[in-house]
Amino acid sequence: MTEPTSLAGPSTTTPTASSPGVTTPTSSITPPTSAAGPTATIPSSGTSGTQTRQIPLTCSGHTRPVVQLQFSPFMLDNSYLLISACKDGMPILRDGVTGDWVGTFLGHKGAVWSSKLNRDTSRAVTASADFTAKLWDTYTGEELVSFPHGHIVRTADFINDTHVVTGGAEKMLRIFDLNQATSTSNVGGRCDAAALELEGHEGAIKHVTWDHARSLILSAGDDRQVRVWDLRTPTPVHTYVTDEPITSMDLSADGELVMCTAGRTVRFWDASSRQLVKAYTMPYDVSSVSLHPHTHNTFVTGGSSDLWVRVYDYESGAELEVYKGHHGPVHAVSYSPDGEIYATGSEDGTIRLWQTTPGKVYGLWQSRKAKEDSLLYR
């Protein structure tokens, strides 16, 4: 096992609107369209209408494509954290409001495909191409436990902060008991034995999430299925089926909707009734989706075949905003817990933070008057 390493210390740089690489996207809003029933086809971006211009904050630090993003689920004193997974093998923790670097977790020897924070943000779990998942202390950066696997690990999440569930190329879910894994008898911080293994997927598992409200595990992957698992049974209790390999899957912030992207389609299922609520077919391949955490009135998508970030009306599917700022496909999108911003991660190795309401005073975004005053009194 790689020796534990500490975070490199406090942030020394603060991204601003004038940071290198920040662009001012100019794009048009598509006229609203109505969704006929739970499914609808979204037309290509139009050229009529206008939208508010905005300048995103650009967060550098990664050297290869950013493949997953997660904000901490709760806010503390109006602040929250953002963790990113990247093919450079070095997950990064940031201040979610400003994008300031907090620390880098060092220890993986391959691409990191997934990184998640637990509910109180004291721990992080990562999944890697080096055939391991790792548990980290987010305060010190120390590697607490390494979970060896027989093949590439693509995804991991916490279960009630007491267990970790992983999935990957082995096509099975492994569940590890953290109390046992971090016990003093666990010499070297290595946990080889899973407390439970769940089999049933026919392809690599690339996404897993824990449903806190219903005590269920949701897993998805290349077999075009989202499986719902009850830990009391060895088989899935429900299966959502798509017609393309799944590129992202998660729950809405309130746990009421299952969100999934596959091919060019974005789907929303009711997590309780398991009925399809909305399905929108886009004119591009969709890589990721995130729903506004409070209002559910908008969702944002990233495209795996272009450089655009798009915001849609949830009820009608109308395209509201289109932004270009990245220099490569957008692999990951995520709303912040307060819904004020959303983050995007790209093939270009950067993370960009965008305002839900462009021009609003928030974080490092200042009002125009504040900017003028700061220049006047220099």
UniProtKB/TrEMBL annotation:
Entry's Gene Ontology molecular function annotations: RNA binding
Record has DNA damage as a keyword: no
Residue stretches of each WD repeat: 105-146, 198-239, 323-355
Keywords: mRNA processing, mRNA splicing, Repeat, WD repeat
Start-end of Polar residues biased regions: 46-57
Any single Gene Ontology cellular-component annotation: SMN complex
Keyword Repeat attributed: yes
GO biological process, one term: spliceosomal snRNP assembly
Region annotation Disordered: where it falls in the sequence: 1-57
Domain of life: Eukaryota
Comp. bias intervals (Low complexity): 1-45
Matches recorded under Pfam families: WD40
Family of the protein in this entry: Belongs to the WD repeat STRAP family.
Protein name (database record): Serine-threonine kinase receptor-associated protein
